[in-house]
Design brief:
Blueprint lengths: L1 H24 L9 E8 L5 E8 L3 H13 L1 H11 L7 E6 L2 H17 L3 H4 L2
């Protein structure tokens, strides 16, 4: 069982590296200029891959980037098939990764609590 997990993780890592390059070099959509692929999760049968990404900008721009990436999923999948050797290249599903924003927000809350500028400071 650990072998299967490590193979799946290696495939996910390779997909992440290759997709980053394909998006950067070949995808000519201005809505996806400033995105970073943060993680890839591949199903055990390699039929589907969830690609998590972050994008700079407002929520409207992030929504546009999600739509653009999902619209270009067929092109990205065929370009991926040319660059990696798998029997079946997974269907690509793009999801905006909120974990980075959540981490920044929590870090700020912790910093505020430590410095005393948080909620305790506001109480009389």
């Amino acid at each position: 069982m650990p072998k299967d997990f490590s193979r799946g993780r290696r495939i996910a890592d390779q997909i992440q590296r290759e997709l980053s390059e394909i998006i950067r070099l070949e995808l000519k959509d201005p809505r996806v200029d400033l995105i970073t692929i943060t993680d890839v999760e591949v199903t055990q049968d390699n039929a589907h891959a969830k690609i998590f990404f972050t994008a700079l900008g407002e929520p409207v721009q992030q929504e546009a980037a999600t739509k653009a990436l999902n619209h270009a999923a067929g092109f990205l999948r065929s370009a991926l098939a040319k660059s990696i050797k798998l029997r079946t290249v997974p269907q690509l599903h793009f999801h905006y990764d909120i974990s980075v924003e959540r981490g920044v927000r929590l870090s700020k809350l912790i910093d505020d609590a430590v410095s005393g500028t948080g909620a305790d400071k506001k109480r009389p």
